[in-house]
Amino acid sequence: MPSRDFKRTDRVGAELRRELGLLVHAAVRDHALPSVSVSDVEVTRDMDWATVWITALQADQAPVALKALKELAGEFRRSLARGMRLRRVPELRFKYDDSVDKGERIDQLLRADEPTAADGADED
User: How does it assemble (predicted)?
Assistant: First the structure.
């Protein structure tokens, strides 16, 4: 019997990420929220909880958007239950994914430390 390279939780997480991406996009537009997007969804093995990781276009606006998404979690869950073929839709927990912010900060630090072309020409 061939082994599976992926778990059911991974497949459900990917489907939730697609569906929640659309729902969050609509919520941002309808409720005039700061611009956010779904970066990942992690589902627990028992399928009771799904952690929804979001990123914000403006990091300082993230707490406002995160609070609003947490309030809309029940509405999102009902929409998912109607649209997906799952026996039980997991409870949604929204968390902020700061990996993009950290990557930008590292990039800024590296760019600030780069020698310019004029600096390298003086060393000859």
Answer: Monomer. Binds 30S ribosomal subunits, but not 50S ribosomal subunits or 70S ribosomes.
Q: Specify whether the CB–CB gap between 76 and 120 falls below 8 A.
A: no
Q: How far apart, in whole angstroms, are the C-alpha atoms of residue 51 and residue 8? A: 16
Residue 84: phi and psi, rounded to 5, are -115, 155
Who's near 41: CB < 8 A, 6+ residues apart?
A: 13, 14, 16, 17, 20, 50, 51, 52, 53
On whether the pTM is more than 0.85, the answer is: no
Q: Going residue by residue through the chain, which has 124 residues, state the pLDDT in tens, using 9 for 90 and above.
A: 455 566 888 989 999 999 999 999 999 999 888 899 999 999 999 989 999 999 988 888 889 999 999 999 999 999 999 988 888 899 999 999 988 888 888 988 888 877 765 555 555 4
